[in-house]
Specification:
Radius of gyration: 23 Å
Number of domains: 2
Largest sheet: 6 strands, mixed
Strand content: 15-25%
Order of helices and strands: HEHEHEHEEHEHEHEHEEHHEH
CATH topology of the largest domain: D-Maltodextrin-Binding Protein, domain 2
Helix content: 40-55%
Structural class: alpha/beta
Length: 328
């Protein structure tokens, strides 16, 4: 029958048949998914913040999915190496990637040759949680609160230095956003990681630093640095005022942790993963563990996650481009 039709009509029917077969194949695959272990590529070293959070969720997630969930650490170039690797994996739901604000929202602006397109190559599955930023200052600085710090910075424009954990990192961009929101002038001093930045802050070589609560808590508790404000409430620093409460409007920077899959992953598979992640995050013990680590559990749908990605690409990418921030 098809052979007797005119070529355009025959080609259209063949294309429709191919699409139908592909859809049926995807549906069949989703019906049996998952049938083997699932790998989550964490694009950062073992023991780091992202790795710790995903390993906290790992046990509950594999209990919901009924198959082993394996963490594969593939670090390099600020998380872009592992993310690029995962973005090119087979879109079958068996290779996923731990996505973060830095690897997805700001990477395009700070890496000249990114091996993936965050919007075109990856599909949002869902989120695990968010972590805020804390502003800490050197113990030698006289400022006892945020208002003192801003007043001091404005009285001495350009004389205060703020550190970051690297050029183009969220720590750097949060500092630039803070400068924009407050109108103060500070000099950026980039470091290669949190440890050397903290060391120089405690020694008074730099005067301020933005980082996550968990990384800073031990030094603050020991009196080696002073915390002034936090962007969102955190169980790690329940006593700290928010920047907004201290009068800084539209300054609520936060990092998020999410799960993404290669872009062509069938929708039913994405929904299965999202459902399992959502159920895992309802576990009370897991939620308590995450909050103790400075992460507020948050389960966004793929649509909500996608909207947040696009908004943060505009926000963080815009800040990075405005100061010509480039990764080291």
């Amino acid at each position: 029958m098809i052979a007797s039709l005119r070529p355009p009509r025959r080609l259209a029917l063949m294309a429709a048949a191919a699409l139908l077969a592909a859809a049926c194949g995807a549906a069949a695959a989703a019906d049996t998914y998952p049938a083997k272990p699932i790998t989550i590529v964490v694009p950062f070293p073992a023991g780091g913040g992202t790795d710790v959070i995903f390993r906290a969720v790992q046990v509950r997630l594999q209990a919901e999915l009924g198959v082993p969930v394996i963490i594969d650490n593939r670090a390099g170039a600020g998380g872009t190496v592992g993310t690029g690797y995962a973005s090119k994996a087979a879109p079958d739901g068996y290779t996923l990637v731990a996505a973060t604000t830095t690897t997805i929202a700001s990477a395009q602006a700070v890496y000249p040759k990114l091996p993936y397109d965050p919007l075109a190559d990856l599909a949002p599955v869902g989120t695990l949680g968010t972590t805020p930023f804390v502003l800490v200052v050197a113990p030698t600085l006289p400022a006892k609160n945020l208002a003192d710090f801003i007043r001091d910075a404005k009285a001495r424009p350009g004389t205060l230095n703020y550190g970051s954990i690297g050029n183009g990192t969220a720590s750097h961009l949060a500092g630039e956003l803070f400068k924009q929101r407050t109108g103060i002038e500070m000099t950026h001093i980039p470091y290669r990681g949190a440890a050397p930045a903290q060391t120089d802050l405690m020694a008074g070589q730099i005067q301020a630093l933005f980082d996550n609560p968990t990384a800073l808590a031990p030094q603050v508790r020991a009196g080696r640095m002073r915390a002034l404000a936090i962007s969102q409430p955190s169980a790690v620093f329940p006593e700290l005022p928010s920047f907004e409460a201290a009068g800084i409007k539209d300054f609520k920077p936060e990092l998020w942790y999410g799960l993404m899959a290669p872009a062509a992953t069938p929708r039913p598979v994405v929904e299965r993963l999202r459902s399992a992640l959502d159920k895992a995050l309802q576990d009370r013990n897991l939620r308590a563990d995450m909050m103790a680590k400075g992460v507020s559990p948050a389960s966004w749908s793929p649509e909500q996650f996608g909207q947040r990605v696009r908004a943060d690409i505009a926000l963080w990418g815009g800040i990075a481009r405005s100061v010509n921030a480039k990764a080291d």
